[in-house]
Amino acid sequence: MTELSCSWCGKPVPEEDGFRLHNGERMAAFCRLEHVVPWQLRGPRWTAAEAATVEGLCAECGKPAEVLLVRHRGEHRIPDPFCSVEHAAAWAKAGGRWR
Prior knowledge:
alpha+beta, 99 residues, 30% strand, 2 helices, five-stranded antiparallel β-sheet
């Protein structure tokens, strides 16, 4: 796999760290959760990726999920589903899981 760059700041995002936001066959990578917010405000830019399966309800509002934010931490993958990129950014802005 080629090394990813943060979709906001351009820093390298190693496979075992960072965040990946999936929307169908599109993906954005982030070195920090906070980078989701300005990326969304500027207008999301995606890269092509394998289609990700999105299941569950939005962590922000409870509607059916369409996008998936995955935290990569070592060998662990921690998914959080959202109904929209806007709700993923609002969740990140509020501190994510740590609010």
